[in-house]
Every structure is written in structure tokens, then in C-alpha cells.
Design brief:
Length: 188
């Protein structure tokens, strides 16, 4: 079956739910049916056979059945699993809603596909530093082994909320959410 046929077949197998909950892709173990020429770019744009997927509803639908196993990403239905390429993270956190302050603060992120996640013990944040450029790449856990890259503008909002704290003898800037402190950079 060609890629267009695989994509059409996959769309027809995604269960539709009345309550808008996410399908339980972690429970499905269908056979692997090959790779699909689908890619999620670092900026959160979805491509099919090199062409941007311009329909937000279709991107949202595909985003509900994405799963990460190890370092590989798949779109999964109850009867089929196809590999896709993800340049960095499958989602981008494009909005930050901060409520409260200090240790009682809660940080809620909204992704490019409309998922919401509150940073905390179940949804940690982390920052990787590029060894060559020293640029930070911040992430927040969204669901079941999937993360969102935190957009640069949202990261700047986090920096404005940051406060200093000493961790293992080093001074860090970080943010609180749900009683958890997340370091985002070394304090100078």
C-alpha cells in the first residue's frame, strides 16, 4: 500500500470519542505496518510527503494517536502502527498560564494542538543546553512519554517568573509549579 493509502486507512481507524478524551494508545499493540512519510518539524508543523498538513483538525486527530516507544515515534490505532519522523518533540508549548506564586504557583502549558498540561511531579519540566551554542532547549512532559518543546516566547515568560535557589551547592534560577522546583538555568 502506498503512503497515501496508509494515511487514509489510518484516519479511518482512529476511534472517535464523544467525550473528547484521548484514545488509550498505550494499551494497543497492533502489528507494525511500516513507515509513513509523515514528519513533525521542530516548530510543531506537520508534513505529509513533504507538504504541510494545513487542516488543524486533521493535525489534532493525528496528534491524539501518537506514541513514543524508545526513541521512535508511531501513529497507533487498534489495528495498525506506522512509524513517523519527529525532528525534536511532537508538540510545542505555545502558551503559559501562571496562577499563584512561590511554591503554590501552578504553571499550565497549552500546546500547538490544544493539549493542556500542568507542570509538576507527574509532568516535569527539563532544560537541555546545546553544547555548541549554549542555547537552552526547554521541555515539559505532556503525556505518556511525550514532551512539548517550550516555545522561546513562553520560555521568556518562565525566565520572568524565575527565582534563585541553591541546589547541591550551585545557584540556579527556576520556577515553581505544584510544589516542585524546576531549574531553568544557572544563576550568574
Amino acid at each position: 500500500m502506498n503512503d497515501a493509502g496508509k494515511a487514509a486507512n489510518l484516519l479511518g481507524q482512529i476511534p472517535q470519542t464523544e467525550n473528547k478524551g484521548l484514545p488509550p494508545v498505550h494499551l494497543w499493540n497492533p502489528p507494525f505496518c511500516g513507515d509513513l512519510d509523515m514528519r513533525i518539524a521542530r516548530d510543531g508543523s506537520w508534513f505529509y510527503q513533504g507538504t504541510p498538513i494545513g487542516r488543524p483538525a486533521m493535525v489534532r486527530l493525528f496528534s491524539t494517536v501518537i506514541r513514543r516507544d524508545g526513541d521512535d515515534y508511531f501513529l497507533v490505532t487498534p489495528v495498525e502502527k506506522v512509524g513517523i519522523t519527529v525532528d525534536d518533540a511532537p508538540f510545542v508549548a505555545v502558551e503559559l498560564i501562571a496562577e499563584g506564586s512561590g511554591e503554590a504557583q501552578v504553571l499550565r502549558f497549552v500546546t500547538n494542538v490544544g493539549d493542556e498540561t500542568e507542570a509538576g511531579e507527574a509532568h516535569p519540566m527539563r532544560v537541555e543546553i546545546d553544547p555548541e551554542t549554549q542555547e537552552p532547549a526547554p521541555y515539559v512532559h505532556v503525556r505518556a512519554n511525550l514532551e512539548a518543546l517550550i516555545h522561546r516566547n513562553v520560555f521568556y515568560q518562565l525566565v520572568e517568573l524565575a527565582e534563585p535557589r541553591e541546589i547541591d551547592g550551585a545557584k540556579w534560577l527556576g520556577v515553581w509549579s505544584q510544589g516542585q522546583f524546576f531549574p531553568i538555568g544557572r544563576a550568574e
